[in-house]
């Protein structure tokens, strides 16, 4: 069952509708839901046109929207508000639709504004101003794609309201462009694809070059296993320089090897032609990570969670040593989880902070959680947030 059918979500929807009326004085035309995601494996491979294996999680952004009529005095004004951290009277960020340019919208509102900006460039579409209110329980800065949940929630809402008929792959590409060109984050296409295209109980096996996808069953319930998220509370941002530097290294490697992307390299031996040792290490992660995704899909089909766990650990070592995007806190989380008996563990997301995941048996939840908390306390780190997630359904009308 998707969380969209849960009592908790129904309660959030009711409260959001009430708050919308309180803030704007109108009822929303509808409310849409877009989940965050956990990437099981396949990190930084998406912008290299490789393979990824994420799944949508049971934490999501709810987006309430009302379009303004041409008769309203502010018919071309976009109003954005959020329930996050603003108490009873959320602040409203307003911008004229015709004045939407990169850098024009501050803070979190840049994400839904980016979607309006990219849609406003579609031929034949006449947008109006709108009122938008967001409620999200996806932890911010945790590597679970809270920003893409905002973008996806916005684009599925507008796709419905304007009867655009956009396919999921169309919406994924448009939100990627919005993220890259308006927000200024050089991200790939995985996060929005996971939010849009996932199915409950499954991981999304996505080929980021062809955009072909397959729902791969996650046999967690059957094997009494669970994915534990360890949010280190070290916030990360794709807009910061580390992410862009890794992407630049990959592009350098591809150019030096004479290929369009590192997706076309399947043998690590080919990387010996790269003179720069740093660029060579970065490329090695991408080539080996692509293979680990393929291997994970294969062993999942066999129901072999032990083999999945081994691949998760190999992925973390590659991100720590070759791609160098881990952190002391992420390493501590993975090491403590494994020492406490996890089947496998790795950092997840863009890196430089955020979350780690651990594949564990249901019986180990309390034990592994306590082991990680103890390790963080001894190291003097901020106490992590630890919770389980399920593979949930992709975005849609709430």
Please describe the structure with a list of short key phrases separated by commas or semicolons.
398 residues; alpha+beta; Ribosomal Protein S5, domain 2; Alpha-Beta Plaits; 2 domains; eight-stranded mixed β-sheet; four-stranded antiparallel β-sheet; 10 helices; 39% helix; globular
In the CATH hierarchy, the third-tier topology of the largest domain is known as: Ribosomal Protein S5, domain 2
Let me know the number of strands.
Answer: 12
Major β-sheet, in short?
Answer: 8 strands, mixed
Number of discrete domains: 2
CATH class of the largest domain: Alpha Beta
Label the CATH architecture of the largest domain: 2-Layer Sandwich
Structural class: alpha+beta
Enumerate the spans where pLDDT stays under 50 for 5 or more consecutive residues.
none
What number is the mean pLDDT? 95
Binned strand content: 15-25%
Alpha plus pi helix count: 10
What general outline do the C-alpha atoms trace?
A: globular
The secondary-structure element order is: HEEEEHEHHHEEEHHHHEEHEE
Gyration radius, rounded? 21 Å
Fraction of helical residues: 25-40%
Distance between the termini: 14 Å
Structure description:
This protein is of the alpha+beta class and 398 residues long. The protein has helices spanning 7-24, 110-119, 146-161, 168-183, 190-197, 241-257, 277-301, 305-321, 328-339, 365-379; strands at 30-41, 51-67, 77-82, 93-96, 130-136, 202-207, 213-217, 225-231, 344-348, 355-361, 385-389, 396-397. The chain folds into 2 domains: 3-215, Ribosomal Protein S5, domain 2 (2-Layer Sandwich); 218-389, GHMP kinase, C-terminal domain (Alpha-Beta Plaits). Strands 1, 2, 3, 4, 5, 6, 7 and 12 form an 8-stranded mixed β-sheet that branches. The chain has a 4-stranded antiparallel β-sheet with strand order 9-10-8-11. The two termini are 14 Å apart.
